[in-house]
Design brief:
alpha+beta; elongated
């Protein structure tokens, strides 16, 4: 079984270090610990989910002979 791990990454500098409130809500502002960029928690979650989806689709396509794979997330 393949295991994937994804985390939040700053859209400006790629850092994975953030100042995050305890029990963050979607509209809470998250600040990059390296460059100070600020984004909503929801936006960073969406970005991480999109990256995960793309990575898994590519991996699955390779495993089944480069056939296109589309994962739908609800």
């Amino acid at each position: 079984m393949t295991k994937y791990t994804f985390g939040l990454k700053c859209t400006k500098c790629g850092s994975e270090k953030f100042t995050i409130p305890t029990n963050p809500k979607p509209n809470d502002v998250i600040t990059c610990g390296k460059c100070g960029a600020m984004r909503s928690y929801h936006r960073l979650q969406k970005q991480t989910l999109a990256t995960a989806k793309k990575t898994v689709e590519k991996d699955l396509a390779k495993r089944i002979g480069n056939k296109p794979i589309v994962i739908k997330i609800k």
